[in-house]
Sequence to fold (307 residues):
Amino acid sequence: MNNRVLIIGALGQLGGIFINALLKRGDFVLASDIHAPNSNTLGCDFIILDALNEKKINEIILKHNISQVYNFAAVLSAKGETDPMKTWEINMGAFLNVVKASLGTSVNCIFWPSSIAVFSEQSGLDLVRNEVPMFPTTMYGVTKLAGEKAMSYFNTKGLIDIRSIRFPGIVSSSEPGGGTTDYVVEMLNAAKQNMNYISPLREDTVLPMMHVEDAVSATLKLMETEREKISISGAYNLGSFETSPKQWSEIIASLGYELKLEFNEDFRQSIADSWPKKIDDTLFRKDISWLPKFDAKSTAEDILRLI
Ligand SMILES: NC(=O)c1ccc[n+]([C@@H]2O[C@H](COP(=O)([O-])OP(=O)(O)OC[C@H]3O[C@@H](n4cnc5c(N)ncnc54)[C@H](O)[C@@H]3O)[C@@H](O)[C@H]2O)c1
Fold:
């Protein structure tokens, strides 16, 4: 049976790619965000919807007989540090309102992405396993960890089925929205436009990354999996490849682009220093039988082709 999907926060870095993948699979897709798109090239219906407005979300779910909600509304790690209280209000408010608006309706499953921002030095950053001590250093990470605990509660109590992946930095042709890993996309854009790039992270800062298509395929596979095969009540680790600004610039150079890289560390360096260098996603790969399609080089090559 095809799903009837509502995407909340659909106009960000990830939304458009999910819309295309869900439409391609034959699902009905209703995209929404707090503001209107610049042009309606989304390929599906669109409505303005504030993720903090529980009543309106509930009305939309009932009106369109929605079976799945993808909740992407969030303030990301770097942007979130400029106003931590607001970041808490938006991220937790969006999480809870979507859950409350879905209870007792046709919604049978919610996808809510978490992030590698839940981790910290105490997590063992060289290779981070799924269940480790977590003391996030950003308010964004705090809201992701709090959401993970809440989803675990809802799943365990059988109130509603919520699924989640801790995404690494996502590499896409769409604009990133204010995260600590935005430099991977910004460097590709600079290379394509023949411009210099000033990296906010030190040249040797290694972080886990992933081609957006792999993030989408992993998510859709997780959403299709029978609940009994999902061995955890919280979020899954997910990894693909690791890179640093220097290694990424070398990959870009190997693809024939001249990119002059300079460095000017800012507050994002200390965030990146508290994040994993490598993710252990054995559990996800075992439960969901999934493998990434792209490595670092093929990701850079593919995204450079698209931008
Ligand atoms: N992009 C990444 O590298 C990455 C990595 C890990 C996790 N994630 C998670 O994936 C999800 C999507 O990320 P993204 O990169 O597309 O983020 P983004 O910042 O690019 O987009 C978020 C969207 O949410 C919308 N939004 C904000 N407040 C809203 C509200 N009150 N109501 C409705 N919409 C609202 C924004 O307008 C924006 O279009 C987020 O939960 C994010 O934490 C992303």
Summary: The mean pLDDT is 97. The CA atoms of residues 173 and 306 lie 6 Å apart. Residues 8-9, 11-15, 33-35, 50-52, 72-74, 76, 90, 94, 113, 115, 167, 169-170, 176-179, 181 surround nicotinamide-adenine-dinucleotide (CB under 6 Å). The chain is about 40% helix and 15% strand.
